[in-house]
Amino acid sequence: MQVKYKDGKNMIMIMPVEEILLPNGLKVEVWDTSLPIAGDTTKVELLIRIRVELQPSYFIKPEHFEIFRKIMGPEIVYEYSKKRAFVDNKEKDTVFRELIESFKKGSLPYLANPKFPQSFALSKYWDIEKNRHRLSIFS
User: Fold this and answer.
1) How much of the chain exceeds pLDDT 90, in percent?
2) Do 86 and 80 form a contact (C-beta atoms < 8 A)?
3) Between the CA atoms of 127, 50, 17 and 9, what dihedral angle is there, to the nearest 10 degrees?
4) Model-level pTM?
5) Is beta strand 16-21 parallel, antiparallel or unpaired with respect to 2-4?
6) Are 25 and 31 in contact (CB under 8 A)?
7) What is the DSSP string of 40-68?
8) Percent of the chain with pLDDT over 70
9) How many CB atoms lie under 10 A from the CB of residue 46?
10) Which pLDDT band holds residue 131 (cuts at 50, 70, 90)?
11) Which secondary-structure segment (H or E) carries 17?
12) Cα 33 from Cα 46, distance rounded (Å)
């Protein structure tokens, strides 16, 4: 993943700082997308990404799976981010660790549930259904 600084000139490459394998087979990628704000402060940002491969069994009808796959592709991505602005540079690592621990305590049990991949896929499918009139695939 590449991130541009505010000036639009500098680019940095970031990699996941941690990967967590869940019992339901999903892999949580933990990213540190923090960026310097001013001389001695940083915007500390935690980004969580989970790729969910689409399965026909997640959907009520096979045509729902086909429609969704045409629009979204073979997988969808769950993303969560948490930010804290103007963190003193001396505190940025501590703040980032706190964000990770908070995420793990509050969200991992939900994301590890065996039904999460299907529930997530269906929620995205129903979002598409609600906006069916806006999509050319249904015309």
Assistant:
1) 76
2) no
3) -40
4) 0.85
5) unpaired
6) no
7) TEEEEEEEEEEEEE--GGGSSSHHHHHHH
8) 86
9) 23
10) confident
11) strand 16-21
12) 6
